[in-house]
Write a structure and sequence with these properties.
This protein has 141 residues and is mostly helical. Helix 4 packs across helix 5. The chain is elongated. It starts with 34 loop residues before the first helix and ends in a 9-residue tail after the last helix.
Length: 141
């Protein structure tokens, strides 16, 4: 398309990291190119602001995250899921998800929709939480 460029702009008034970044600037001035970039920026902003760490960053007792990141082996408790979603996962007799990897497999196979009392809102919540944790997730729809 005419007028569109690909890749980061290195010069001009809206180069990545230029002085005087303001509300009129495009998000690319912050170096944000992907959803992952945006999430990393938000996590760093929370860290430097002094706000308390989210439970997923705290380690949950004896469980530790390699490099501060969640892995497929992490227990579901490492995700910040609502009580409603946690209860749906725990109380469904056919659901055996115990780890983040199990939950990712359910999401990718579209079987998460089959979990009793999960509903579309619960699936969207799981999708958003896994995406925020840095995992690749399928498109919903």
């Amino acid at each position: 398309m005419a007028g569109m460029t690909s890749g980061p702009s290195r010069s001009g008034p809206h180069a990545v990291g230029h002085d005087r970044i303001g509300l009129e600037c495009p998000v690319t001035c912050l170096g944000v190119w992907t959803v992952g970039d945006l999430l990393a920026l938000l996590v760093e902003a929370r860290r430097v602001s002094g706000l308390p760490a989210a439970p997923a960053d705290a380690g949950f007792g004896a469980h530790r995250h390699e490099g501060g990141r969640l892995s497929r082996a992490c227990p579901l408790a490492c995700l910040q899921l609502s009580t409603r979603v946690r209860n749906a996962l725990r109380n469904d007799r056919n659901c055996t998800a115990k780890t983040v990897g199990d939950l990712l497999d359910l999401l990718w196979s579209r079987d998460l929709h089959e979990v009793r009392l999960m509903g579309a809102r619960g699936v969207r919540e799981v999708h958003a939480e896994l995406l925020a944790a840095g995992f690749s997730v399928p498109r919903l729809g």
